[in-house]
Amino acid sequence: MTCSDNTAALLVSHLLQSEIGDFDESEDREHLKTNQYLPNQEKLEGKILEFHRKHVGQTPAESDFQVLEIARKLEMYGIRFHLASDREGTKINLAVSHMGVLVFQGNTKINTFNWSKVRKLSFKRKRFLIKLHPEVCGPYQDTLEFLLGSRDECKNFWKICVEYHTFFRLFDQPKPKAKAVFFTRGSSFRYSPLGLTPAFQVNLNAVTQGSSPLLSPVLSDAGGARIEEDDETKRKRYPTDKAYFIAKEILATERTYLKDLEVITVWFRSAVIKENAMPEGLMTLLFSNIDPIYEFHRGFLKEIEQRLSLWEGRTNAHVKGDHQRIGDVMLRNMRALKEFTSYLQKHDEVLTELEKATKRLKKLEMVYKEFELQKVCYLPLNTFLLKPIQRLMHYKLILGRLCKHYTAEHRDFADCRNALKEVTEMTSQLQHSLIRLENFQKLTELQHDLIGIDNLTAPGREFIREGCLYKLTKKGLQQRMFFLFSDMLLYTSKGVTGTNQFKIHGHLSLHGMLVEESENEWSVPHCFTIYSAQKTIVVAKSTFLRNPSFSCFLYHSLLKPLPNSPPPGSSDEVSVEQESEDDIHSSRSSLDRQSHHRANTTMHVCWYRNTSVSMADHSVAVENQLSGYLLRKFKNSNGWQKLWVVFTNFCLFFYKTHQDDYPLASLPLLGYTVSCPVEADGIQKDYVFKLQFKSHVYFFRAESKYTFESFLVFIFHLRDKCRAPFHLSGFSVIPFYYYPL
To answer: What is this structure's pTM?
Structure first.
């Protein structure tokens, strides 16, 4: 079995406990001399003994169970390799699992083709063919082709794939078909599952007849499953205790988090290996730090899934309440997660070295940029490297919510409190590192998106806020994107090039800067003048905006001049820059014309929505992330479409299911109004909220009161902390009295 040295040593330590009992160093060493469990056992002997020392009192049966528990969580558990090569002749290994067809390079998994994406499996002599559904795109073609060693090997692998695909996708047992009278071409092999239990029966039609890909930013009404199930019946199906819904939230967000890790561990790794674009040293630094974390969370997710399955079930254990808790699972895994603190502390180095390498190596820079265009990379790539530390913050918030819900006498309270204590220790160690990393990530993101500056990531520089203002020019007020840093102010315009980047028109040093109101002088509402050593400019808030936050923020931030500031009248006259044709066209751009390049970065959304976001807002947004199913109303009918929704980075991302690798559509919430439906909307359903920006209106329905309140509380909380991005109305009936309306 292929696994890491750490896991191998842990497995052997449990085998020792099972074979010879409690730890005795001399007896352990003697046993290991006569029993070879590992190829490199001598090197790991110290680690094995260290683990065995911790198993005192464990019975042989418990030790054997632990061996199985650890083994089943390993990525290579149950995996049998089939040697093959791809179209380019690269040697690979194919394998089959419950998820789909897996592709390995050596022992590293580089791709997974989920059964939900597979339309047809076939073979021709030594060629094995996978035909995907039309909506599957990204780095793949419609038909994938692999070459195996012989026809017999190819046919054998095809049979295994058919068996797995049928077993894990079958709705009910197929009826036998009458044999054809005439000769038929092709194989007669069919998989006939006998005694298939309802637990393993999956509705194939619900997946294969799904909707066409949704459009962004406007969700399409075409296709999609229409849900008209009776609400009362659905509510009776699952437990209604708040602790259950909090546990379900842990499960939902853990699924999203694992998918985020796969963006680096699977997809990005595949891209750089294919092009041989990353130096070996950087490969080792990057993946040796994130692979163990990914492997750990794969096992953690399985544990949560099993617990929720038992919690929802109707077994005797469920009646007794033995499985109606999550604290024990969280405590065990939070303690195990502490072993990875050293990996998390290296993420600062990883992020820095990756940025240096992309500047130095043109090939890596090209692969990096091309990868960010893929649908699977739905956020700027380097944000995914921050996810492991940010996830600890999420655990802390969720466990805090559980502790507040439980009484001190509840059987799950002590475990939840101890788990919260463990994760709090980790977050306190990593808090300063996270703040520094988030700032560095934002600076590198802006470095990629801004044309005209090369050293944005200079040491000591901090990002403060980005947002839109209107600058006075010879042609009147022109929209500009402003970026405020700890040492300077940049203003830019959006170009119409294929890269969709922003062009810098000027940068002003904060040293010696002075700001004063000038509405009367220029007869422009919300107008103020910025005096700097380089030039003087006049800016204003758009008259049609309801929220003057950026202009107010900028005005009050710069109102007090730094030492040695020049008096207001000593500067030159207002400088008026000449507008280019590109600038004129870019100022008229609309959200409907945005290109695919990094379209979900906040700077692009701020440009189109005429709003602003600060670094403090970004930090709050990290804490307010949510995943779960919502029902979206069709525009011109009463039908509802079930979607997996991820709320992160001020944006809702929509998927068909939680297993999808990339979002079908996204809806940035900056500038949106959130409210309850009114009578004129004609919606007679519970747990519905309304999102509106100008003429764009969306209705979403939650499947439970808890999910409904969670989404709204998160949006309320984000808006309340950020002060700017969202507008809320019509929620006086909702008991969120602690959030000012």
So the answer is: 0.64
